[in-house]
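Progress note, sequence design subtask.
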C-alpha cells in the first residue's frame, strides 16, 4: 500500500454517508471520510472545523480525515 500525502484544510460541507468536502490550504478540494482512529474515537466533524487529512496517492480527489485541529 502506498503512503498518502498529508495536508491540512477546512471542512466546507457535510455530505451523505459520512463524507465531507474539505478545502485544503493549497486551494484543492477533496472528498474525505473519517480514518480509522478518528472513527474509533468517534470524532465529530462539522463544517468550519480545521482537519488534517491524508490524500490518496492513487486518487488525489479522495482523502481520509486523520484528526481534527483544536479550536
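Output:
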Amino acid at each position: 500500500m502506498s503512503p498518502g500525502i498529508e495536508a491540512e484544510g477546512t471542512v466546507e460541507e457535510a455530505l451523505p454517508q459520512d463524507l465531507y468536502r474539505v478545502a485544503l490550504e493549497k486551494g484543492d478540494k477533496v472528498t474525505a471520510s473519517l480514518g480509522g482512529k478518528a472513527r474509533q474515537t468517534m470524532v465529530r466533524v462539522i463544517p468550519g472545523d480545521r482537519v488534517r487529512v491524508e490524500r490518496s496517492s492513487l486518487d488525489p480527489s479522495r482523502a481520509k480525515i486523520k484528526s481534527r485541529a483544536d479550536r
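The first helix runs from residue 36 to 40. Work on this subtask will continue into the next period as scheduled.
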